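Researcher: Good morning. I'm working through a list of sequences from a screen, and I'd like to move beyond sequence-only analysis. For each chain I'm collecting a predicted structure so we can compare shapes side by side. This is the next one on the list. No need for commentary yet; just the structure.
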Amino acid sequence: MSADVQVLIASRSQDVLKQMRQSLAAVAGVQLDALLMVNGNADPLLGVNDRPEVLVLHCDEGIESLQAIARRQESERPLLLVVGADPKPDTVKFAVRAGARDLISTDEPESLARALEDLLSEIGSDETGGDLTVVMNAKGGSGGTFISTNLAHIAATNSSGSTLVLDLDFQFASLPHYLDLAPRRSFLDALANAHDLDSMAVEAYTAEHSSGLAVMAPIPDTITVADFDIQERLQTLLPILKARYRHIVVDVPRHIDDVSSPILKAADRVLIVLQQSLPAVRDAVRLKTTLVREMELKKDRISFVINRHLKS
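Model: Good morning. Structure tokens for this chain:
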């Protein structure tokens, strides 16, 4: 990021304002300004000469401020983080209308810093949004899911911005088992509601690992048939995911079809996982040839990953 991001923190409470400033003091690349809302006006942006890029708004005492922001034109709204304790349904409803990217509890100050860092990553990224890595087996059992899970975990724990790992296997999803997670909502549910989701609402369809890694997958050990066009819904959902997550790793089954094609074409890199056997090498070469000739992927976007490498 070439210049510091202008961040305005606003509250009617001097104590909360001080707490938010302390929570965000260690976040790099920001210029913090504070606004104590004591003039009786509900709109924290009224009278602000230089509109901030990010507004961190404390709204424990009602929804008037959120309503005021929601009434503004979308082009006049900064990126919004809402801080409060145990938000009520009305608060959540108007936060969504105001375009809030996250709702953070006042009891979790570390979550506020993490949410702001995620927004900074989004601001600093290009227009295409998050970085997308696709992992695909050259031959069944090569370890693609293992590689996907570990790459995503490394990104979640060592890189800036939030990370999502997506299991695209609708029949035999196993990725959540690697992280000892049991998702309550399926990836298919997210696809079914894709037209109604935004970058905040999509989080409801993920399970969160203790590392902070978000996991989206079909429910393991179940086979579900969709009654809608998966490809069309996936093309709607993918930009939403890329707007929300800085890093996305997708575990793609070993076949190219109407579901995997949009993901492969949108990928920043494709990792073909193989082991050291002649059939695996042969299939890896065939797969790369198909991706380059038929799907017109650039060669420099495709790499080979040798799993269970034997030096001998």
